[in-house]
């Protein structure tokens, strides 16, 4: 079954649009899932938690990835008689139509009439008044297994708020599409931010349910509070199983290839190199206008509503790498993020002093916060090899791998 899934994945990758340019019909598209009947998400196992929800006032942290079958989990549970009193939306919003980094306001869901409170705007953590009319909070967001993903900070803040207000959190667990990989420098907590909230490596190899247990168990929340936590586990899941996402986890991770390249390519957000935001192939291409003549492949970022309205190098032709057909099996076999692209692009870029200078553009992030360390930037500039860089991640990476074992729910 595993080989069949991987073959179909590669065939699907080959059918993605080639060359530069934009393809509006492909916005928010994602490779169709191949059903693996042995793997069932926590949300889809309604028989395990519906009786527990009866008679309770329920809040839900959800977005478009929160599904029961082919239907939004909010709609499904409401139809099943569950009293959902409030929805909390993360980055990109409850309906997933906000661009990366854009503030999201509070609203009322027009379909259900349920109030929607944003956790990515003026408020990032539910207040006591927001939880006063809730007995239990459901957390059901598809994660991608990378420290940069802001949903992990949202998870922490929701758990912390619920712990402080004596509310229980029920996690409907989902597979991690990058669950096979535990790699990268462990975050230096001096660089803590919304894209690096805990002392974990870039790729943590855990599901949300496992990660939540780690937040609790390691005492990472304010004043060491503990959250009352219940996890509905994924049936018949293993960390190294290929898992094809049925719904994009965010607007700019709109293909399976982008999801699997994300742990390696998100570092480029702290550089002058575009990762394809402003195209319909984000996180599968890399480029910059100053690389003209060095690479034949090109693309032109433009403003795309709901994905990236003002991307880096907007309306300028970028030259670089096309990774849409990159063999993902190389990453899976190596179980490592790919540093060679970062090393290559730094060497190729002619104006070295600009490469990491995020003051040039509001669309560039702080590379040190993305990397979780000040060392990686210095190592790239110094011309260190990939193996030399990797050695510097020890012993902290091995120590994390050992600590992580305490919280694993799956082999």
Automatic annotation (TrEMBL):
A Pfam family matched in the record: NamZ_N
Superkingdom classification of source: Bacteria
GO-annotated molecular function: peptidoglycan beta-N-acetylmuramidase activity
Keywords of this entry: Signal
Start and end residues of each Peptidoglycan beta-N-acetylmuramidase NamZ C-terminal domain: 260-410
InterPro entries: NamZ (IPR008302), NamZ_C (IPR048503), NamZ_N (IPR048502)
Signal peptide: 1-19
Peptidoglycan beta-N-acetylmuramidase NamZ N-terminal domain: residues covered: 58-256
PANTHER family in UniProt: HYPOTHETICAL 460 KDA PROTEIN IN FEUA-SIGW INTERGENIC REGION [PRECURSOR], PEPTIDOGLYCAN BETA-N-ACETYLMURAMIDASE NAMZ
Record's protein name: Uncharacterized conserved protein UCP016719
């Amino acid at each position: 079954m595993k080989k069949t899934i991987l073959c179909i994945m590669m065939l699907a990758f080959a059918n993605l649009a080639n060359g530069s340019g934009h393809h509006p019909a492909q916005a928010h598209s994602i490779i169709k899932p191949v059903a693996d009947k042995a793997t069932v998400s926590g949300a889809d196992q309604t028989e395990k938690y519906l009786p527990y929800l009866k008679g309770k006032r329920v809040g839900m942290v959800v977005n478009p990835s929160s599904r029961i079958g082919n239907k939004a989990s909010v709609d499904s549970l409401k139809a099943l008689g569950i009293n959902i009193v409030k929805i909390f939306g993360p980055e990109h919003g409850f309906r997933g139509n906000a661009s990366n980094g854009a503030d999201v306001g509070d609203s009322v869901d027009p379909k259900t009439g349920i109030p929607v409170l944003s956790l990515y705007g003026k408020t990032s953590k539910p207040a006591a008044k927001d939880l006063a009319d809730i007995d239990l909070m459901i957390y059901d967001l598809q994660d991608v297994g990378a420290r940069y993903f802001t949903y992990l900070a949202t998870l922490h803040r929701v758990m912390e708020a619920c712990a402080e207000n004596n509310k229980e959190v029920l996690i409907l667990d989902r597979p991690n599409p990058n669950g096979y990989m535990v790699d990268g420098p462990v975050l230096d907590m001096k660089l803590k931010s919304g894209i690096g909230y805990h002392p974990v490596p870039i790729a943590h190899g855990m599901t949300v349910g496992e990660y939540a247990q780690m937040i609790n168990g390691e005492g990472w929340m304010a004043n060491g509070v503990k959250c009352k936590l219940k996890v509905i586990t994924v049936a018949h899941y293993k960390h190294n199983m290929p898992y094809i996402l049925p719904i994009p986890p965010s607007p700019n991770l709109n293909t399976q290839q982008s999801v699997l390249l994300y742990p390696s390519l998100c570092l480029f957000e702290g550089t002058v190199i575009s990762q394809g935001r402003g195209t319909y192939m984000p996180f599968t291409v890399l480029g910059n206008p100053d690389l003209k003549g060095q690479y034949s492949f090109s693309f032109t970022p433009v403003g795309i509503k709901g994905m990236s309205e003002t991307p880096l190098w907007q309306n300028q032709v970028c030259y670089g790498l096309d990774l849409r057909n990159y063999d993902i099996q190389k990453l899976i076999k190596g179980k490592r993020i790919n540093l060679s692209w970062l090393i290559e692009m730094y060497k190729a870029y002619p104006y070295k002093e600009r490469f990491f200078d995020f003051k040039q553009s509001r669309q560039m992030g702080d590379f040190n916060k993305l990397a979780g360390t000040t060392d990686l930037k210095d190592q790239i500039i110094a011309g260190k090899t990939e193996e030399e860089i990797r050695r510097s991640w020890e012993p902290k990476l091995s120590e994390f791998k050992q600590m992580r074992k305490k919280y694993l729910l799956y082999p």
